[in-house]
Amino acid sequence: MAPPDSLSDFIEYKYRSDGPHTKRLLIFFLPGNPGVVEYYRDFLSDLHKDLTNDGPVTQPSARKDSLQERIPHITTYGHSLAGFELQASWPSSRDESWPVCMRDGPPFDLYQQIEGVKFRLNEAVRRYNDRVDDDAEPLKVVLVGHSVGSYMLMEVVDWWQREIAGEGKGLEKTAKWEVVSGVCLFPTVVDIVKSPKGKVMKWVLAIPGLQWAAWLLATLLTTLISPIRIWNWPAELTPGSNPSSANTAITAALLHSPLGVRQTIHLAADEMRQIQHDKWHPSNVWGASDPDIDITETSVKASAASPRTKLFFYWGRDDYWVDNSSRDRVIEKRARRVDGAGQGGRPTMVVDRHGMDHCFSLERAHGKIVAGQVAEWVREVVGGS
């Protein structure tokens, strides 16, 4: 079992080739809930290897299209969501670098998490744009989100489209970057309370004092039961029929952390309240105009001159956090058709055929399959650059 101090709050893999770095790619990952990025280490490692051909490739055909020959500077980066830090305490409320809505500290709700993601994305872009060649092209950013991270991804895409349309104030106009694609994995983007687990958890999470009761229970387990090793409770709380020792160690670290349990419950409760109808603009976010719009319109107006972020969705077959009928309606209304004729920039959507669990990254074989699919989609978007 990995010791807690070996776990990190961020994961970063870099590929550099010789020569000028005029073309660059950043894969920016958004975790689900619990928002601990360590649960995704193997998946992110496999994804980076697939993109750079650095080691075994899960999609052998990808060898024919070596992405790093076209983009010599590739970074894969993921950070735990705010409040889920295992190694660092939350910054002081006086830290003015963070969004105003987060300065009082955790636990954070869904809106605050989205603001935190935008902040970290801006910081990552600023860091990767330092010391680049003057003739460097804009940094291409591909967002990858899992579960509620997919909902956050959609909100970031909506924000990005507003910014490039000139309506926002949160983007540095001199910043050389663009969100070219978003990949949603086992997404919880609509009607979460209609899902099998949502139907139960909406009542459980509404129990007064649940956050503190769960925190107290976790504290008792970590201080009384864990030391005498009479019950491997982290393994019982880790999803999957046979969780690995590495993932069990991550769960143990999460439950030992001062904020992990409260933050998990606080965010989950807000997910039940906020993740409801399809709220995003049919053109600016979904990528195509729709004559039969039944969603809440945003004030952003479509413009042919504004680049659209290409979206991809990988749905679970019978995902316990997703209502199948709601999923099917989204696919019918928003997805790109097989022939693609007249579909503009509509998202590509597929439904899993491998019997994967919602927490796909906890099973190494499943994580490899998903990594290969994500790499294939990334090549589709940026491979011709």
Automatic annotation (TrEMBL):
Keywords in UniProt for this one? Hydrolase, Lipid droplet
Species, as recorded: Zasmidium cellare ATCC 36951
What is stated as this protein's family in its record? Belongs to the AB hydrolase superfamily. LDAH family.
The GO terms describing molecular function are: lipase activity
GO BP: any one term: lipid storage
Q: What is this protein called?
A: AB hydrolase-1 domain-containing protein
The primary location reported for this protein is: other
Cleaved signal peptide residues = none
This entry carries the following GO cellular component terms, namely:
lipid droplet
What Gene3D superfamilies does UniProt report for this protein, alphabetically? alpha/beta hydrolase
Pfam families in alphabetical order: LIDHydrolase
Sorted alphabetically, which InterPro entries does this protein's record hold? Answer: AB_hydrolase_fold (IPR029058), LDAH (IPR019363)
Cellular localization per UniProt? Lipid droplet
